[in-house]
Amino acid sequence: MDMLETPVQYIKGVGEQRAKAFAKLGVETLRDLVMAFPRAYDDRTEVKTISQLQFGDACCVSATVAAPAKLSRVRRGLDITRCAVVDETARMTVTFFNQSYVGKNLIPGESYIFYGRVTGRIGAPEMQNPVMERESLPPAFTRRIVPVYRMTAGLSQRVVANAVRQGLEKCGEELPEQLPAYIRERYRLAQTRFAYENIHFPRDKESLELARRRLIFEEFFILSCTLAFMRSRQQEKSGKRIRVPDMTPFFEALPFALTGAQRRAVDDILRDLSGDRPMSRLVQGDVGSGKTAVAAAAAYAVIRDGRQTAFMAPTEILAEQHFATLSKLLAPLGVCVDLLTGGLTAKQKREAQGRLKSGETQLVIGTHALISDSVEFADLGLIIADEQHRFGVQQRAALSDKGDAPHVLVMSATPIPRTLALIVYGDLDVSVIDELPPGRQTVDTFLVGEDKRQRLYGFIRKHVSEGRQVFIVCPAVEESEENPDGLKSVKEYAGELSEKVFPDLRVALVHGKLKPKEKNGVMEAFAAGKIDILVATTVIEVGVDVPNATLMVVENADRFGLSQLHQLRGRVGRGQYKSTCVLIRQGGGEAAAQRLRAFCKTTDGFKIAEEDLRIRGPGDFFGSRQSGLPDMNIASFATDLDMLKTAQQAAKELLEDDPELSRPENAVLRQSVTRMLMKNRGTLN
Ligand code: ADP
Ligand code: MG
What we know:
Layout: H1 15-24, H2 30-35, E1 40-43, E2 47-48, E3 58-65, E4 70-75, E5 78-86, E6 91-97, E7 111-121, E8 124-128, E9 131-134, E10 145-148, H3 157-171, H4 181-186, H5 192-200, H6 205-234, H7 248-253, H8 260-273, E11 280-285, H9 291-304, E12 308-312, H10 316-330, E13 337-340, H11 346-358, E14 363-366, E15 380-386, H12 393-400, E16 407-412, H13 418-424, E17 429-433, E18 444-448, H14 453-465, E19 469-473, H15 490-501, E20 507-510, H16 516-527, E21 533-536, E22 549-554, H17 562-569, E23 580-584, H18 589-601, H19 605-621, H20 641-657, H21 667-679
Parallel strand pairs: 2-3, 6-8, 11-16, 11-17, 12-14, 12-15, 13-14, 15-16, 18-23, 19-21, 19-22, 20-21, 22-23
Antiparallel strand pairs: 1-10, 3-5, 3-7, 4-5, 5-6, 7-8, 7-9
Bound molecules: adenosine-5'-diphosphate and magnesium ion.
Adenosine-5'-diphosphate binds at residues 256, 258-259, 262, 285, 287-293, 413, 437, 545, 574.
């Protein structure tokens, strides 16, 4: 058996009980143990003499026990051990609470290293509960950089550190070298043994940095190999070619001419469709860049060739909006368009499903309802997923399974850095729509504080009096335990606005906890101009198109990610009127203010995305629902992007040389790739 698979229970000093605690941290084998890298480090390298100590210092002191320790029982449940220690400069007291056993370890005349925070009075320094070690023993927990591990009940830093030490010793020379020697040399990466030892017990800061660099590279390298591997597997699938029809009737039916960027995306798609493997393409374009028309072109081509298209939207509101737009465009061209959402009655659903199964419906637009088992297609040729990051990869796959290797088109308004796109979207080819339709106005963006609220209300009133409409977005739904910070709650705030501030205006409320029917009712009324001010949560973030809305107000703007704010801002400025976005900042300090001020100055979605990624990391960046990024052990998609690029390049070179990783020298790497595949089943595309 592989030594690294040894259950952690059998590591010296662990045993059955502690193994259970380790399991809670995800550590079950020796491999897991040595891979459980510290989450932080405590730098205990500084050693001072007692006379140098300042109140509040955290440092080591080398001192000799001057007299036997004294144990005093203060009361039931509290005893104190006090001991005087000296060095050549002065005297210090070390105090231990409820550690009556330490007394016998403090041998008079013996020298120890104490590490702790300095308290006590001037001239009478003290350390409470210091870490102590005999000076004659090799430094383990003092005089060096000490690891700080993730913790759980039943373990302590000392127990984990000792287990790791034992683990590393047991591994001996078996720590697998996963990187080919030439790569290690070319990128000047530390050796495995050195890396593992120094990531846990760094000799010094430089060694820690070398270890980190190597391990981050290694993790990204394995990830890159894994993705490339999957990609080559994907390419083996074959799909049905589409004979691309004459697109002229479609282009003539469009109420506008496509922009150059839209045109290029359509060309990419038509080329994919006529190829002999199924299309997997992502169309990435900022809000308002016109992705719907591009999707419609794809649907038209597939449908003209006699196959069906399923268009999946993340919300019911969006599905209905797409249904309206696409029916208007495609029905006159003879395309049979249908809608399938959770909001339909059982009877309506059955009928819609019947039309799909018989092949009568050529284009179906829907929500997750499309994935349900009872939905069958006559001949599904194309899947379009709008705002992809809201769909799990599995959901997309489930829809794919309803056809015979259908083509897949994914649309996203979340611009993500190119390097990350490779990971999040895996095998997808990417078309970028980097041009807005002509005549689009930029949205002026302002950041204000609470003090400008009255003026803001005046500004809102002015918009409404000119016949325009206003969005007000708040981060939380209601005042509850979930919302302890007094964030603007939509419900109360909408009530306040409609009763006190704008009693003469039509104020409505929409949030995610409403029933779909109610939500749609409100959105439709707003789109029809029957509501002046819509108070909402981020349910309106995606896609909704109301050209008459010209003012977007965001409460507690500091609570939102920049990419999310960018999406919200994209809800206005969709018509001929000058539009404005006002961010109200209630908290977050100077850091938030700076971030938001930068946001006010730029409209470039890619720049905003990179900034967001840098500040908030990928979890927040993609929304908590699903980051689409695999869990990494040490590498970070936010801070180690440069290393990711290098590793991707190295992986590419290696795989060109040995595409199946079948050479003996790549056997260990191949195993790691397999492990990464298993671990991330469902996450990776
Ligand atoms: P998004 O990329 O955010 O999904 P949409 O497809 O909803 O954008 O398009 C936004 C608006 O721009 C829609 O009202 C649409 O009709 C319009 N539009 C799209 N393409 C063009 C174009 N080439 N010229 C003019 N208007 C366009
Ligand atoms: Mg859209």
